[in-house]
Amino acid sequence: MPAELHDRKSAVLTRLRFERCLEEGRLREVWLAVGPEGKRRLVTYVKGFLGREPESSIPQLAEQRLTAVRHPHLLGVEAVIPEGGRVVIVSESAECTWAEYFRTTPLEGPYGLRRQRLLSLLGQVAQALDYLRREHALMHLGLSPRVLWLRNGQAAVSDYGIVELLLVPLQCSPAQYSPRYAAPEVFAGRPSWGSDQFSLATIYQELLTGAHPFRVARLRDLTGESWHEPDLEPLPAGDREAVARALARNPADRFANCSDFVRALQEAPRRVEAVSNHRAKLILPGQMEFDLSAPWFSRQLHNQVSRLVHLASQGLEVREYRGMRYRYNQKGILEHTCAAVLAPGVAWEKVMGFLQTWPVRILLLDGFQIVVRLIGSESWWQKLVPVSNDIIEVRLWFEPAWSGMTRVRIEMEYVGKFPRQARQILEQIGPIFLEQLRSYLMATPERREHERFPYTEPLRVIYGLPDGQTRQEITVIGQDVSSTGIRFLSPVPLPEEPVHIVPAGEGSDRAIALPASILRVQPCDEGYMVAARFLLDPDDSLDEPPR
């Protein structure tokens, strides 16, 4: 892109007044902004634009195609601007996303929002998707409730063209933009005209019933031989045939277009049936049922949590420096995580300013990761010559956290010429570097009494009413665990109520159900990140892993 054209387009952003961030994810930030004439706009930052210079022709070609798209149920694109390893898309605005609407609007009837209202909105989205295919030969490939909007009571679609025109030309996986709703062929890198229909059917069932048709933590787990049929029991009986066809594994077996799918739903019998839930029991090995509230059982629960923590902490050495905890993993890499109350994107820019105070050599810069190497002299003769070389490689990742915070994850690895001195040099430089970085970011102080360790094994979560009639069981993927709680990736938004968690991985023959309360449920790219606290007797101490 010519420099003068790039500067002229960048001036569009300077004239906008950014009001608030609507969403922040690993690949996408969405802001509400107001132009000088008072007109509201959406500004979407696409962070997956990696390794490309501002003069790349990809954004320019995307702008030519997207600004020509006009449809009453599509948010019109006004500009596509490359900026600092990201691509900024300025488009028309809308009131709220479907995700926000369904989260804040009281549910009506046994299937959430009235089926008739949802089908009306779904029909408008289907018209827009079929228009993109028919008139512009475009697939969306990034559908989710977060890119479906309400505008003047009507449905509107955003983010169309991002996957096909921006990410795919960069050899990025098309499924990474919306992995929770992507079709199996999209994960395989072979999207088809039926892929958007698959996503639409998945969204329909989840918004109508609250249950995702594929109860796995990641839809990519359904590729290859691991495919299994969707669970359509929560749907009204009349809807199951149409949704099953739209969710067919083979795209050729689906409807000819999205409008035909919605039409089949509208013509289906309106018979209302009770939601069919899978019953689940809390058991010990051997299929024996027990009362988990019995006093004698308390120590068994503590032992189970202790086993989980010790399993997760194997090979990790936890150390402390001036109230700041960090650790070394099995490979001798120093690890630390901190969080700061920063606006999206500001953390990245503040860290870049901090790195200017250290002698570094930059290896990688993109919207959510920075890799640099600290340069210095390791020995007396290097200081005399002087000869400088790479000493420590620092890798930083920027991730959205709870309540608008930014989580910064740091790894420091020795890459110098004296491996035997690796730990000594890391101990000399690492804690000081981390302390200064935390101060620069104004990171929140350490409040957690118990260290959290990575734990990525599968878990079974049992939730529902205690009468056993409405209990459900799902499989989730663990993220990390401490002696007081656990975080995991769930395919469904769990209610904030007591649940039971059972390890389902290796050694699960000794596992028992752990009572826990759901603290937070946060939507993310691959489902819902859930934080839970174990409901254990505080009077019973729990052995901590060695530090």
Question: Keyphrases for this structure?
Answer:
547 residues, alpha+beta, Thrombin, subunit H, TATA-Binding Protein, 7-stranded antiparallel beta sheet, 6-stranded antiparallel beta barrel, disordered C terminus
Largest sheet features: 7 strands, antiparallel
Strand residue content: 25-35%
Shape: globular
Query: Are there runs of 5+ residues with pLDDT below 50, and where?
Result: 107-113, 270-296, 380-387, 538-547
Structural class: alpha+beta
Helix content: 25-40%
Mean pLDDT: 78
CATH class of the largest domain: Mainly Alpha
Secondary structure tally: strands? 24
Distance between the termini: 54 Å
Tally of alpha and pi helices: 13
Could you state the CATH homologous superfamily of the largest domain? Transferase(Phosphotransferase) domain 1
Specify the CATH architecture of the largest domain.
Orthogonal Bundle
Q: Quaternary arrangement of the chains shown?
A: single chain
C-alpha Rg (nearest Å) = 26 Å
SSE topology sketch:
Layout: H1 3-14, E1 17-24, E2 28-34, E3 40-46, H2 58-66, E4 77-83, E5 86-92, E6 96-97, H3 98-104, H4 115-136, E7 148-151, E8 154-157, H5 162-167, H6 184-187, H7 195-209, H8 237-246, H9 258-267, E9 283-284, E10 288-289, H10 298-312, E11 317-321, E12 324-328, E13 334-340, H11 346-355, E14 360-366, E15 369-376, H12 380-384, E16 389-400, E17 406-414, H13 422-441, E18 453-454, E19 458-463, E20 472-481, E21 485-490, E22 498-503, E23 514-524, E24 527-534
Antiparallel strand pairs: 1-2, 2-3, 3-5, 4-5, 6-7, 7-8, 9-10, 11-12, 12-13, 13-17, 14-15, 15-16, 16-17, 18-20, 19-20, 19-22, 20-21, 21-24, 22-23, 23-24
Helix pairs in contact: 4-7, 4-9, 8-9, 11-13
